[in-house]
Specification:
mainly beta; OB fold (Dihydrolipoamide Acetyltransferase, E2P); 2 helices
Amino acid sequence: MDARQRYDDPTETIDTAMRAAQAKIWTTVPCTIVSVDFAKQTCTVQPTVKTQVRKADGSQEWQALPVIPDAPLHFPGGGGVAMTFPVKAGDEALAMISARSIDAWHQSGGEQQQTTMRMHDLSDAMVMVGFRSQPNALPNVSPDAVHIRSTDGTSTISLHPTDGVAISTPNALSISAAGSINFTGTFNVTGDVVLNGIPLSTHKHTDVTPGGGTTGGPTA
């Protein structure tokens, strides 16, 4: 039994009732990704903050919150463009709990009537990835540039307000375009440029003619 229940104190009684009601209101809760459905952009998450439960004998114990299934997964976007992330099981995230039921909106979009009168319920979670606990903090975060990066920081696309844009990776860098690729400026290369299998630094020309003639095309 709660010790406060032993005393006839109206203020304490009201305070206890308000705390009990407040305990049922969920706003946000940290969680871990259990699984992801990329086709539906939903995920299943496990809240990582336990809740205290009073047992029948008056004792208390900490219990894990239930798994939240089929929660909308947030990818930033707007104006016809979006950013997606290869979210995986075990990633940390934040579940935002809607004040009202999201069922009808999630199913049909637009402005919808509520299908139930529930409020601040864990089943109305929407999930944002990127929040991190201290043990999983990103290493070497830039204090003055925007980075799109791998978690370990070995591959980065950097946007700096004065130094411009830089791309760094220990792996391959590929560019594919259906149309032409236009470049303005000086193109400095350390290494070689290979066009259709022919290296720029060591290629030869065919049909060499002494004098003011024009050589043939390049060859390997």
